[in-house]
Amino acid sequence: MSAQLDFLEEAKVIKREGLNKFLTYLKDDTDFFQAPASTKFHGAHEAGLLLHSLTVYDIMKSIDEMLDLGLPKESIAICGLFHDVCKTNFYEIDDRAASSAQVNFLLDLCSKAKMNPPPKEERTAGYLSMAIDALLKKEPIPEFKPTYKVNDQLPMGRGEKSVYIINKFVPLTDNEALAIRWHLGGFDPGIHFNYPSGIPQHQAMRSNKLQALLISADIAGSYLIDKW
């Protein structure tokens, strides 16, 4: 609850029409404040998406101040706090049982490493996959945690989906829309297609500091700060 209150407090920087309706939508009609940020990678835990969004916003503010970019505070808040609303109503707990082949492989690795295998009630496919990865790296088996799978209720992509959802409530500037659309940077499949005008992600970032700031903060938050 503390992180949710922090998020709502930070969002007060945004004075744009429709914000209160958007926040009510996120609270009442989505799992934004409870959802993970990924299936089993960064922020793969309850409220991971909320914490990631706050982290990215904090990093954006710090870089903007450090480099004296002078970008609009409202734009930084919109991009940092809402760039990943595409992940709402997107994940669900993956409780599929591990296959017999997966269990046998795990038991063999545990025997060779002289480690106790996870108890039967923890042998979900997602968790055993993480346990096997750890054993192959000669690391301890991680503590059990649920993993997630994708159940996308609005299959529209990622950045473009966030722009669509936000724009239903809060009007975005062109620079905000471009920054959120392309916030995945090199991880966005669309970056690899050469449109008639060239590669639009590259074209947009050359003139949009907000976009470069969001991409940088998202990578830093995902790989340097978020819990894996």
Integer tally of domains? 2
- The name CATH uses for the topology of the largest domain is Hypothetical protein af1432
* Main β-sheet description: 2 strands, antiparallel
Helix content: 40-55%
Average residue-wise pLDDT: 94
Using the CA coordinates, give the radius of gyration.
20 Å
Distance between the termini: 21 Å
User: Low-confidence runs (pLDDT<50, min 5 residues)?
Assistant: none
Side by side, the strands of the main sheet go 1-2
| Strand coverage percent | under 5%
Instruction: Quickly give the structural class.
Output: mainly alpha
Oligomer: single chain
List SSEs in N-to-C order. HHHHEHHEHHHH
SS elements, strand count = 2
Basic shape? elongated
CATH class of the largest domain: Mainly Alpha
DSSP helical segment count: 10
Structural account:
This protein is mainly α and about 230 residues long. It has two domains: about 1-95 and about 155-225, Hypothetical protein af1432, CATH 1.10.3210; about 100-145, no CATH class. Helix content is about 50%, strand content about 5%. The chain contains ten helices and two strands. The protein has helices at about 1-10, 20-30, 50-65, 75-80, 100-115, 125-135, 160-165, 175-180, 200-205, 210-225, and strands spanning about 90-95, 150. The chain has a two-stranded antiparallel ribbon with strand order 1-2. Helix 3 crosses helix 10 (about 210-225) and helix 5 runs parallel beside helix 6. The longest helix is centred in the N-terminal third of the chain and has 19 residues, at about 50-65. It is elongated and about 60 Å long.
